[in-house]
Amino acid sequence: MSDYYDDHDSGAPTEPSSVASPTGPNNREPPPPVEENGRLYHPRGRYHFPSDQAEKDRLNLQHEAWLLTFNGELGLCPKIREMGHNVLDIGTGTGVWAIDYALKHKGSMVTGLDITGHPSPGPMNYKLEVDDCEDQDWQWLGNIDFVFARAMTGCFETMEYIVDQAKFHLRPNGWLEIQGLEGLCLRLFTQQLNWTREQVLEFCSRARQQLKDRNIHAYLPM
User: Where is the composition biased (Basic and acidic residues) (predicted)?
Assistant: First the structure.
């Protein structure tokens, strides 16, 4: 799924009065990871993905897969090609998307927010903030032009809170883009399986419902 929302009803866009601060008030060092089954994880059980080098490699490979899916573009909404002055990447991981956006739009200020924090070298207009976006208000970010999130299914206790925070802090004509399951399935299933768009969306909807059903268990050969 790649959903994007705008705020066109709020009036004409304005020039930014402030950009993201060099350091958020709650910015902190990531806590030491815990080792489980030979992998390193964030100590808070709410985030279930690893935080080791193998995971960094997976995230970077995932980014390349999304670029192939979108013909080299970083996303679908207008702020991908039009510069956003103050941009927030939620769950930035290695920061690869945020860094690419910052390199493409050198006049922007791009903040990568992540609970684990995988520092990567980037341009001067990119910075990493280590924090949990569900544990704080986003007021320190100022007004945001573009909020981006990718493959965050299962990472939040409530996605509604993230969407509400994004909508509250977006500037007039700001955008929120959330990339997930349907964005990949739409292209693959329509091109390779000749499904219609409606068939893909119905399939993804059923898949989401089954993911929530605790009576369904999946088993893989080991």
Answer: 1-10
